[in-house]
Design brief:
Blueprint (H helix, E strand, L loop, with lengths): L1 E2 L4 E4 L5 H10 L9 E3 L5 H4 L2 H8 L2 E5 H7 L8 E3 L4 E3 L5 E6 L8 E6 L5 E5 L7 H7 L4 E5 L4 H6 L4 H8 L7 H11 L6 E5 L8 H12 L6 E4 L7 E2 L8 E2 L4
Parallel strand pairs: 2-3, 3-4, 4-5, 9-10, 10-11, 11-12
Antiparallel strand pairs: 1-2, 6-7, 7-8, 8-9, 13-14
Helix pairs in contact: 5-8, 8-9
This protein binds zinc ion (2 copies).
């Protein structure tokens, strides 16, 4: 979720409605304070309860046309569609840019949020590789949440069938720890305050592998903090001008 003083925007809504409301509660967010829900692509782990949530909470639902068609959501009545690389304005200050990324028979996007005061945060998941223009946009962000889906040798020696291994590691699959490290090394700059690694595979990755590989790739240029977002979370939140996370405590 991305919040500013003006609005709360949930990026992707793939847990059940009940789980989502529980997790928002841990973060101290009232579900009906979510102004907008942005869905990056049609895969169920990103879109599953988005329409139900938008109706229940009175939040506007946003996605691109490709995702709306795959979800069967009616544009205008049920969702607002945006164009890839088009700025989406949520309030006078908060806006987002949707940057297309290659992923598995979908029209997936990474999102770059801007609060109009020079703070930018990115959420990047489900991509087999990072296009150059995405890296350019990431180089202007103070916060980056990005997937580190698999450790290459764990995937190769792991339990998945070969066809699935090829799909995950292919151009339309997911990012490995070393790809994520390389992207962050390229995008790193002195005002990158925080990185969160997310969408870790439980079968093919482990938090210590992801964190160490990414930190090694980023080297000494990165002076911010790094955290892992776990499936059981949320455990923390970040402000774009803060270097460290604020811990959340479950009620
Ligand atoms: Zn996906
Ligand atoms: Zn996913």
């Amino acid at each position: 979720m991305i919040s500013s003083e003006e609005c709360n925007i949930l990026v992707d809504c793939g847990f059940s409605l009940k789980q989502t409301e529980k997790r928002l509660g841990i973060a101290g967010v009232q579900p009906d304070s979510i102004d907008s829900i942005v869905v990056t692509h049609h895969h169920k782990d990103h879109s599953g309860s988005a329409l139900g949530a938008s109706k229940k909470w009175g939040s506007s639902l946003h996605c691109n046309m490709g995702t709306a068609i795959r979800m069967g959501w009616r544009p205008i009545e049920e969702c607002k569609t945006f164009g890839n690389l088009e700025r989406i304005d949520f309030s006078s200050k908060m806006s987002m840019l949707a940057v297309p990324v290659p992923h598995d028979d979908s029209d997936n996007v990474a999102v770059i949020a801007s609060d109009g005061r020079g703070n930018r945060a990115a959420i990047v998941t489900d991509l087999g590789e990072a296009p150059k223009d995405l890296i350019n946009h990431l180089s202007g962000c103070n916060h980056i949440s990005i997937e580190a889906n698999y450790d290459h040798s764990r995937l190769v020696s792991g339990p998945y069938p070969d066809s699935l291994k090829r799909r995950i590691s292919g151009r339309g699959g997911h990012l490995s720890n070393s790809q994520t490290g390389e992207i962050l090394r390229e995008a790193c700059h002195k005002d990158l305050h925080s990185v969160v690694l997310c969408h870790l595979s439980e079968s093919n990755n482990a938090p210590h592998l992801a964190e160490s590989e990414v930190l090694l790739a980023m080297g000494t240029e990165f002076g911010g903090s790094i955290s892992i977002s776990r499936q059981a979370g949320p455990e923390f939140s970040y402000w774009t001008d803060q270097k460290g996370p604020s811990r959340l405590v479950a009620a």
